[in-house]
Amino acid sequence: MATLQQVASRAGCSLATASRVLNRNGPVSDIMVRKVRRAAAELGYRPASTVAGKGGRRPVIGVLIPSITNPVFSSSLSSIENRMLVAGHGVLIAQSHYDPAREADAVAALLNDRPTGLILTLCDASASRLLSPSLPPTVLLNNMPTSSFPAAVTVNNHRAGRELTELLLGLGHRRILFVSGTFSASDRARARHEGYRLAMIEYDLDPLDAVQVPFVGGYDQLDLSAALTAFSPSAIIASNDLLAFGVIGALRREGLAVPRDISVAGFDGIAIGRLMDPPLTTIEMPDASMGATAASLLLDMAENAAPVRHLEVAHVLRRGGTVRDITGT
């Protein structure tokens, strides 16, 4: 079994520097961090704290998600846990409940267990108050990379919003309403709306004002009566599938049928949407593979000194029966 002295020798540094890098307990330059981690990986060295974990426990990573009840995040979390199980790591979970103010406290709680690294889905990565220098290796999941968090696994939500809007425009819809969770709680929803907005403008149409509702709450009680009166939409895009289900319920309470009276589409591609009658039109996101990819990237960064990367995963447009062609009407 390789020793710490062998790692230090291969990396060309002192024993103390190698120890600080591998135990993350002191200032070291980024270049030296990469050299020491690469040497440790090449030699197969793992510090006792990594093998057994603090107090004899196995090592862990921390994961922050907005809500564990959302199938999107539970799917990603399941694949993260499976990948980490193979690597011998446990997974600690924290939730922000779509509240940016709670993110710092949630991450601080995760850091109490000295995780190998973090996988974070933030409300808005560009506005986050988290400071990367104080964090272990960190990968964003679903957020675009920033200067503070350059490692990320994403889909192109802007392009997805544009594609879904273009589908509806091609079917003859011109008054398309965007219903979303609050943009401050999800930069993903904001990017999807921006894609919608630009698609409308390219068709020389005025985008309708978005209807924003809280992510945390009862979608089953969604009331769209005021928006329907104000905008008279022929189609509604919801910023996620769960909200799309709420939109369909709200339309039915108004005596309207989908898609006969109003077409509805969403984002995420969760399984229950395929079981609906008719099936939901949606942008399918590869949540499980994204979680596994984020886990692999984090391990590569933390244990092999791999460079940070932004990995983009493809989405797929799934047309179901909740939208209809009105070009002939």
Automatic annotation (TrEMBL):
Gene3D superfamilies named among the record's database cross-references: 3.40.50.2300, lambda repressor-like DNA-binding domains
Record keyword Hydrolase present: no
Domain HTH lacI-type stretches: 2-53
CDD domains recorded: HTH_LacI (cd01392)
Domain of life: Bacteria
SMART domains registered for this protein in UniProt: HTH_LACI
MF annotations from Gene Ontology: DNA-binding transcription factor activity; transcription cis-regulatory region binding
Keywords associated with the record: DNA-binding, Repressor, Transcription, Transcription regulation
Keyword presence, Transcription regulation: yes
PANTHER family xref list: HTH-TYPE TRANSCRIPTIONAL REPRESSOR PURR-RELATED, LACI-RELATED TRANSCRIPTIONAL REPRESSOR
Protein name: LacI family DNA-binding transcriptional regulator
